[in-house]
Target: Exodeoxyribonuclease III
Amino acid sequence: MRIATWNVNSVRARHDRVLAWLRRTDVDVLALQETKARDAQFPTASFEELGYQVAHLGHSQWNGVALLSRVGLDDVRAGFEGMPTWGDPPVAEARALSAVCGGVRVWSLYVPNGRTLDDPHLQYKLDWLAALRAAGAGWLAADPDAQVALVGDWNIAPRDEDVWDMRAFAGATHVSEPERAAFAAVVDAGFADVVRPFTPAPGNFTYWDYTQLRFPRREGMRIDFVLASPALARRVRGASIDREERKGKGASDHAPVVVELDDAGTTG
DNA sequence: ATGGTAGTCGAACTA
Model:
């Protein structure tokens, strides 16, 4: 079984690319972020024609998350316990969607950006991650053998080697100590980064800004992650970042990230 | 040099 995550930066602008990528890669579960679509705008039928069940959580103009699965899509949930809201009045931001796919609870997550270090959005980001850590710790406390995947765009580069040049990020979000601490707290709660061991730094980025020729200059960031609960991490047999998908006209600014699992019941 | 590109909708905002 293979699970993938991809910030597509508009599922409608990327429709042909996503369909072609699914045909080419044949993944079982694909989590999407930044779909930038209301539910009625989401191209559900075209994914169903490829054999995937579809869940989408849309609404706002900029965010939106989805799950495509051909190994079942059960107990769909929007948001997690204690997830903070943003805005006054609160805006339905559509940042977290989960379902049980082939025995694994997969969360498609779009962590708040934070914007700048002095913006209230940064505290919202930290609160959001703290709530996710608390919720995740609760799931593992209730069932230490739970197979849970926290996948998506975390908008954090956990290590200096996860950006092309730390000097370019002085005073910026994504690399600050509190953001890295919030990410580390999720890891400490029991969710391991299962992609990094197969894609060691330097240079294995998942995102390259559209401006400044960042991609051809290989100036990117590693901010998209698959974090796995202990029982799921034991099943991981490989992982990759599909850098090829970032190439050419009409690419998202993020590359898909793919994790390969052992068949259930054959772990050990 | 306060830039650059891409997406939403159709001005301004988000990333």
Observations:
- The CA atoms of residues 4 and 258 of chain A lie 4 Å apart.
- Chain A has one domain: 2-261.
- The first helix of chain A runs from residue 15 to 25.
